[in-house]
Amino acid sequence: MPRSPRQTALSRTRMMRVLLESPEPEFLLEAHNGLSARIAEDSGARGIWASGLAISAQYGVRDSNEVSWTQVVDMAEFMADATTVPILLDGDTGFGNFNNVRRLVRKLEPRGISGVCLEDKCFPKTNSFVRGARQPLADVDEFCGKIRAACDARHDPDFCIVARTEAFIAGWDVTEALRRAERYHRAGADAILIHSKHPEAREIRQFAEAWRRRGPLVIVPTTYATDVSAAMLSECGINLVIWANHLVRASVTAMQAAAERIISTGSVTSIEHDIAPIDELFRLQAVDELQRARQRYEPTPHRRTVIAVGPDTPALPDGWDPRWRDVLRQRGFTQVLRAGDNAALFLDSLRDDLTPDTLLLPASLAISAAVLDELTASDAPLTVVIDSAAAGADAADAAWCTGPDTGAAFPATVELRGLGTPPGGGCRAAHGRWIGALMLRHAGRRWLADALDELRPAPGFGQRTLADLLTHLLASRRVRVVYTHGRWSTATPAGRAARSDAAMSS
Ligand code: SPV
Ligand code: MG
Rounded to two decimals, what is the model's pTM? Predict the structure, then answer.
């Protein structure tokens, strides 16, 4: 889901810094993968919190560093690719010591992440809300070393380092929270995240009052969300509010409801209108962008025309065997025209529509991909397909050529000499039968048009068939032969069944 940056002069890191230092409270919305990040941005969120809890949950594991740091970085990269707004990554404890923190920062910057939040607990951490869990705090000096290492590792001075103290979570009072925050601030943190699991915002208020706006303040009101108001935020001087887990929780509820209904009703019809249409997924995945890119970058196959000749043509090409349609389409035969039996007249009216490469063949006929490839590989202006498995001198489509079908891997060039009657008379055995396929390339289209013009004054012009046209051409033009030994069939699925043993197997 590659997205181009929004029309803004600000880099993503700068945007994050603007949010972090905003005098009015700003908000980050949680996301946990590319899709949820895209949804968050679509909703109007100005920034995203790449939550450790939510990323762990979407992997189906605990928020206890069970997800490796590289998996977190990979997911953050997907989120950045899917969005243009700034992303603050929940970096937990930094996944190790100062050295791991430096490495983390160096990996995040080039992946489009705008900042990292580091918390003063011990690796492996436990989510702050897990009841009864021990939440040992990190040594302050050691944690300050991580903050300094993170600041020194960034190349972009706007990449934000947020220091989070878990003092309240670990059961300490405001004095300890303040002592820690003060040290982290002095170590270079761009903002302090003060966390609390209290059902009211009491601890946050206490801390904010003592903090006295010494630097940007960030909060995560999950347990005390109902105690948060515009007045409270401005009173406490809160710069940034993180709604830390609401999209992952919303998705759990939606998935549980859908799964329960599908299994209990044994059907998906009852939920069809309550779930996103597939097209909405495509929109979120920016499928249209790929379609446009395809048109721009993929080579356009040489456009070719196929003219289906015959009276009883079904709705073409829809009535054709899908495999035959694919064979044609893959070889650039994207324009399908129809012609009645008196092909001469029809062709006359279509003359201007013909692409330089045009294949004429009975509407009911499908030839194997290999034979079609041989036809399109022929550089002769006119090439016909002769079935050497169907010999017989008396048929109107009996064909006499300059040589027989040798079946050789690299056969010598063979040309058509006579159709219906042997060249120069006599009753020599035919080399096969013309199956009705004629490929026009290069000057072939003009040759055909000239032949039509030559035949036009003659009586019965309107009844001329393609075979008549070909016979006329043989007098003055060279017509190349591609031999097949069977390997053709009927073009419609029903017809295929009827003919399969007779023709396809040969
Ligand atoms: C997260 O979203 O992973 C957080 C916030 O760190 S909390 O779950 O409240 O600890
Ligand atoms: Mg977390």
Answer: 0.69
Closest ligand 1 atom, residue 244 Cα? 2
Query: Of 73, 33, 496, 12, which is closest to residue 251 (Cα–Cα)?
Result: 33
Please report the pLDDT score of residue 489 as a whole number: 83
- CA 489 – CA 502 distance, rounded (Å): 9
Output DSSP code: residue 410.
S
Write the burial class of residue 458 (CB in 10 Å: 0-12 exposed, 13-18 middle, 19+ buried).
exposed
> Is the beta carbon of 53 within 6 A of some atom in ligand 1?
yes
Q: Is the CB of 244 under 6 A from ligand 1?
A: yes
Task: Using the structure block, give the residue that is written with the tokens 């490796």.
Answer: 68
Question: Would you call 346 helix, strand, or coil by DSSP?
Answer: helix
Cβ 247 under 6 angstroms from ligand 1: no
Alpha helix segments (H runs only) across 317-418: 322-330, 343-350, 369-377
171: tokens are 């059961």
Distance 141 CA to ligand 2 centre (A): 22
Following DSSP, what letter does each residue of 269-333 receive, concatenated?
GGGGGGS--HHHHHHHTTHHHHHHHHHHHSPPPPPEEEEEE-TT--STTTTS-HHHHHHHHHTTE
* 423-433 pLDDT, tens digit each: 887 777 899 99
By DSSP bridging, strand 480-484 and strand 382-387 are parallel
Domains of the chain with CATH codes: 5-245 (3.20.20.60), 255-297 (no CATH), 304-504 (3.90.550.10)
For the question of residue 63 being annotated catalytic, the response is: yes
Which pLDDT band, with edges at 50, 70 and 90, does 262 fall under?
Answer: very high
Q: Hey, which residues does 29 pair with through a beta bridge?
A: 48, 243
CA of 111 to the centre of ligand 2 (A): 20
* Closest alpha carbon to 90 in 146, 130, 52: 52
Point out the ligand 1 atom lying closest to the alpha carbon of residue 92. 6
How far away, in angstroms, is 52 Cα from ligand 1 center?
6
Phi, psi of 407 (to 5 degrees): 70, 10
Beta bridge partners of 47: none
Q: What is the pLDDT of residues 211-251, one digit of tens each?
A: 999 999 999 999 999 999 999 999 999 999 999 999 999 99
Q: Is 390 in the pocket of ligand 1 (CB under 6 A)?
A: no
